[in-house]
Design a protein that fits this description.
391 residues; alpha+beta; FAD/NAD(P)-binding domain; six-stranded antiparallel β-barrel; five-stranded parallel sheet; binds flavin-adenine dinucleotide
Length: 391
């Protein structure tokens, strides 16, 4: 059986290792000039390849994922990495290779491909797939019994996942959901953007779509000249991306001191003016912005504040509101919302219309949170497909 894998990076390489045996001839095609280019940029060059909390709530889709992402698949996927000699370095549940280098994962794949005599063609762009007499014909020249499309989404097109495969999928008449960027910075209309640029602070974010609370996230917030960024922002960005695309209003409320419920009572315990006490907790620039917004004199003692001033101060510390006007585009994104509708695929991720055509990774309508979930889905989907092919 000849199996062609379109896309020689995360899920494609994992699938190749899993399906190669004496009965299966495997050919990996990629339009990049090297394999695994995407892997190299992951986790800031460290490749956060898994997470100790693989609960399905970290994965998002228009369809239910409970039958797909089972405990058995999760366990078998992680075991595969252990069996390949990847010793994990685990930080707050995030798995990295012990070397802290993404090249460790990428190079492992290349070594294993070579060892197993798996062929690959680089600088090869797949722009046409036809199904004729139970065979797949790729670009009018390569014949295959089965094809796995592992060509990624649209995020970080410079790494090769540039969305060009969508034409091929559309021509096959396979239904897809609109692709949108996720795990991106949010751009806001904040009047303070230039002033707060560069501040990093712990915060809790609450995202509201048309006034309705949708999700809360806590973590390190980066205040930028265009708005807000950081992992906690990335994890709410999918909701902003979808809502803005639908023309809805997106607002984020920032709690700058989430670890203290009643900041005013806390501050009253100290014989300090309001600027002094707040600047012992927060970045001084941020304190200036909060006091400016709340219209409070920085030398005022907390005991001298009127109830109106107290509620205003509380509002700008605990519910600092920013309107989101846009999200980063695909060049800034780490993953893609949307893609191939799971209703088009069976539980083996095989097309219901085309026998022997499979999909893995980001091209499928599944996007994960930040923290190893997108690579996690890439490996798990590749394992699901390879188990089906090997059966
Ligand atoms: C900056 C950045 C950091 C990230 N960090 C993490 C992280 O730490 N942890 C995590 O879990 N996820 C991370 N992700 C997300 C993760 O990298 C992807 O979700 C995952 O790599 C997708 O795997 P894939 O197999 O679907 O596609 P990819 O790994 O993107 O591979 C697709 C391959 O297909 C090739 N291709 C595409 N179209 C064609 C075509 N028409 N013909 C031939 N070849 C084609 C491409 O060249 C590419 O090599 C990050 C993403 C980015 C952009």
């Amino acid at each position: 059986m000849k199996i062609v894998i379109v896309g020689g990076s995360s899920s494609g390489l994992f699938a190749a290792l899993k399906i190669k045996n004496e009965d299966n001839e495997v050919l990996v095609l990629d339009h990049n000039d090297e394999l695994g280019k995407k892997i190299l940029v992951t986790g800031n060059g460290r490749c956060n390849y898994w997470n100790s909390d693989m609960d399905n709530s970290h994965f998002h889709s228009n369809n239910d994922l409970s039958m797909l992402l089972t405990d058995d698949i999760k366990e078998e996927t992680l075991n595969s990495f252990n069996d390949l000699g990847i010793l994990p370095l685990i930080k707050n549940g995030y798995y990295y290779p012990y070397s802290n280098q993404a090249t460790t994962i990428r190079d492992m794949f290349i070594q294993e491909l070579d060892k197993r005599n798996i062929s690959y063609k680089l600088n090869y762009d797949v722009n046409k797939i036809e199904y004729i007499n139970n065979k797949y014909i790729i670009n009018d020249e390569i014949e295959a019994d089965k094809v796995i499309i592992s060509a990624g989404g649209n995020a970080a097109p410079v790494t090769g996942s540039n969305g060009s495969i969508m034409n091929v999928i559309n021509n096959l008449g396979i239904k897809t959901f609109k692709q949108l960027p996720s795990l991106v910075p949010l751009y806001t209309d904040g009047e303070y953007n230039n002033f707060w640029n560069g501040i990093r602070t712990n915060a809790k974010l609450a995202i509201y779509i048309d006034g309705e609370l949708v999700k809360e996230e806590q973590g390190e917030l980066q205040l930028t000249q265009n708005g807000i960024s950081g992992i906690c922002v990335f994890n709410i960005s999918r909701y902003a991306s979808i809502a803005l695309d639908e023309g809805k209003h997106v607002n984020v409320k920032i709690d700058f001191i989430p670890d203290v419920d009643d900041v005013i009572s806390y501050a009253s315990r100290f014989d300090l003016n309001i600027y002094e006490i707040l600047s012992r907790i927060l970045n001084k620039k941020l304190v200036k912005i909060i006091l400016d917004k709340a219209d409070i004199n920085s030398s005022a003692h907390i005991s001298s504040l009127t109830s109106k001033e107290i509620s205003s101060l509380n509002k700008y510390i605990k519910e600092f509101s920013v309107n989101v006007i846009s999200v980063g585009d695909f060049t800034k994104a780490q993953t893609t919302i949307g893609g191939v509708d799971l209703n088009e695929l069976d539980s083996n991720l095989e097309s219901k219309k085309y026998k022997g055509l499979y999909f893995t990774g980001e091209i499928v309508d599944v996007d994960g949170d930040c923290g190893g979930y997108n690579l996690g889905f890439a490996w798990m989907s590749a394992l699901i497909v390879s188990k089906a092919i090997n059966r």
